[in-house]
Amino acid sequence: MEHRRIPIETDTDAVLQVRTGEQGVCRQVNGSTIPPSWRDAADVLRRSLGFAVILGDVDAGKSTLCTYLANTCLDHRLRTSIIDGDVGQADIGPPTTTSSSTVSKHILNLQELRPERSYFIGDTSPSSVPDKLVKSIARLKDELSTGSETTILNTDGWVREDEAVAHKLQLLNSLRPDLVLGLSLDHELDHILDLQQCPTLRLEASSFARTRTREERKKAREEGYRRFLQNPKRLNLRLNAIKLRMFNAPRQQRIDRDSTHRGTLAGLLDEKGVLLSIGRIVRIGTGIISITTTAEEMPRTVELGAVILSSGFDEIAYEPRSSRRQESSRHRSCARCSSPSSKASSH
User: In the chain, where do the E strands start and end?
Assistant: First the structure.
């Protein structure tokens, strides 16, 4: 697993056999990689049960904390589920998606979990479609509410800008969690955590957490695309038999005749809007959309995302950010104009 660091710790004597890749490194460290506050958080979570949200900056160790909490809950025979809300560095599902999974055995990392339900967001940045992201996570939470005693949401690392704070507050207000866990490197979460009325724990980041470069995060996403597009096939769909739209537009789009959208990442959705598979657009034209995908079922809707992929599923371009955000900004502006109460609450 490239571009990732996986901490392994045993609570009894054990013999471990570790195999690494060509550039992989295995290192033994003194002491525990688990901060004391993480153990306290696990105790609180297993006693309180319910829905917990993990917040933190990029590379603060959110996925590692999520893995540790899930394993601890499993130790106490609690039915535990994970929601992966990090569209940029998704672990459970492909990048640009939100996913949920039930934990049935101990795991070393979240990538070992199989996505049981996913929603296509369409961008690696939560800032372009924040409302869509919040709604998808809320749907995943509602779908898990009856089957799990504990559900843990792993969020993205967008927390520092004013717009990021507003988005995280919107997310928490919509989800109403039973517990919020803030992984703080400094005081970057204070503007979010100070406004919470539910139980909140401030946790320190692990001193063994590794900060990745932008290029390493990009490579990790590309691994994610390939993981969910292994052995793809060519799927040809008639445009008059499906709905076709952009990821940030709620209605069907009229496609420019001169644009084939070659390489565009796409989400293939069923009749309820649930993701069947991601895919890469080969061509749109003459009434046909051709997609490279692993989908077995025929989709009812195809959403075109913001990411442009090469034939080897490398990220080679993005839609301009202005056009990515224009549609969602327009809808939020309309909502504010039509509701005096929402205008007042925005201050």
Answer: 50-56, 80-84, 97-103, 117-120, 150-154, 179-184, 200-204, 233-238, 243-246, 264-269, 275-285, 288-293, 301-309, 315-318
How many residues are given for the chain? 347
Tokens (6 digits) for 299: 């989709």
For residue 125, what are the CA distances in angstroms to 87, 172, 184?
7, 18, 21
Q: What is the DSSP letter of 314?
A: -
Distance, in Å, from the CA atom of 279 to the CA atom of 299, rounded to the nearest integer, reads 11
In degrees, rounded to 5, the angle at the alpha carbon of residue 89 between the alpha carbons of residues 83 and 94 is 70
d(CA 142, CA 79): 15
Res. 3: pLDDT tops 90: no
pTM greater than 0.85 (yes/no): yes
The span from the CA of 149 to the CA of 146, in Å, is 8
Q: Where would I find the H helices in 248-339?
A: 321-338
For residues 323 and 260, what is the distance between their CA atoms, to the nearest angstrom? Answer: 18
Which residue is listed with tokens 């919107």? 170
User: Tokens for 11?
Assistant: 């609570």
Mean per-residue pLDDT for 99-122? 96
Catalogue the E-assigned strands of 106-260. 117-120, 150-154, 179-184, 200-204, 233-238, 243-246
Domains of the chain: 36-214 (3.40.50.300), 226-319 (2.40.30.330)
